[in-house]
Amino acid sequence: MNESTGHQPMLAPIVLFVYNRVTHTRWVIESLLKCEGARHSKLFIYSDGAKHEADQESVAKVRTYLDSIRGFEQVSLTKRERNNGLAHNIIQGVTEVISRYGKVIVIEDDLIFSPHFLTFMNSALNYYEKDPRIFSISGYNPAMRFPSYYQEQVYLNYRNSSWGWATWSDRWDKIDWSVADFQQFMKDKAQQKLFNRGGEDLTDMLIKVMNGQVNSWSIRFTYAQYKQGAFTVYPVQSLVSNLGADGSGTHTDKTNKFDVVLNNHLDEIRFPSHLTVDENIMKEFKKFYRLSLKKKIKRMLLSVTQS
User: Fold this and answer.
1) What are the angstrom distances between the C-alpha of 89 and each of 202, 212, 247?
2) Alpha carbons 174 and 215: distance in angstroms, whole number
3) Who contacts 88 (Cβ-Cβ below 8 Å, separation ≥6)?
4) Where are the domains of the chain?
5) Is 197 exposed, middle or buried (0-12, 13-18, 19+ CB in 10 A)?
6) If DSSP codes are grouped into helix, strand and coil, which group holds residue 131?
7) CATH entry 3.90.1210.10 includes domain 14-306
8) At 300, phi and psi to the nearest 5?
9) Angstrom distance (rounded) from CA 205 to CA 200
10) Which own/partner pairs from 39-42 qualify as long-range (CB within 8 Å, at least 24 positions apart)?
């Protein structure tokens, strides 16, 4: 289905989270400004406070640059006095914006976009807004092979994406950030197997969050999506590239595993009237999230201690 004509709904506000990488922040803004619809979009920026004294200068440089940003319909900048950490900063910032506007497009400071990124995200938000099966929209997709029979531009995925994504307030409000049923989940191997349909690492990541080893918002988002029996809509060809896997980030190791060629030639956007999960596609997708044998053994041991 093509984009609807006639009255166009309000463009979703864009929420950007930054920390101490001024070069990356400049790249993301320059790329975002080249997107169709950027100048008609509201941009909300959350700048986290320095975690260490050594980061204060770099955080200050980022904020000096942020003060100079122009070219959007509106720019709203929040400078955190303290370091909230990425997870808390995102949860709080998204909650503030989505409660006012009902939907958001969320990005971080290490992304580069196709010029069609905002058009795709807004079109998907409008098209799937009334479909309770869809929990979020992803702008990113890893470079993977698709079956020759698959001709759609999008597909359903069990896993959410944190690299350029969007959702609605009624979905966001369903997330239990405390994961109150975690102990029950850890006693149910069948549930863990179902959860891991989006990647072998998912249960492992959730265990680490609940044990306080990492502080991830994304795995809790994916878990809430799983609990709702819902999905994320992914583009077949990525509209987002992540530059943060260069060793400069706090939460991402250096790797080229997730490098992609951006879809810069999206002439029209078509959404199928009904999507179902294609397990052949998911089999290819899961190759990016395989656990090593060492990690599988460690997860089994952790599962035993949690049960």
Assistant:
1) 22, 17, 21
2) 19
3) 215
4) 14-306
5) middle
6) coil
7) no
8) -60, -40
9) 10
10) 39/71, 39/72, 39/73, 40/11, 40/73, 41/11, 41/12, 41/13, 41/14, 41/72, 41/73, 41/118, 42/11, 42/13, 42/14, 42/72, 42/73, 42/74, 42/76, 42/101
Q: What is the pLDDT of residues 50-77, one digit of tens each?
A: 999 999 999 999 999 999 999 999 999 9
Distance of alpha carbon 242 from alpha carbon 263, whole angstroms: 14
- 111-113 and 240-242: which strand pairing? antiparallel
* Token pair of 299 as six digits: 């997860």
If you average pLDDT over residues 189-215, what whole number do you get? 95
The residue behind tokens 């952790």 is 302
Band of pLDDT at residue 1, cut at 50, 70 and 90? very low
Query: Are the C-beta atoms of 28 and 164 separated by less than 8 Å?
Result: no
- Helix, strand or coil, per DSSP, at residue 190: helix
Confidence band for 307, pLDDT divided at 50, 70 and 90: low
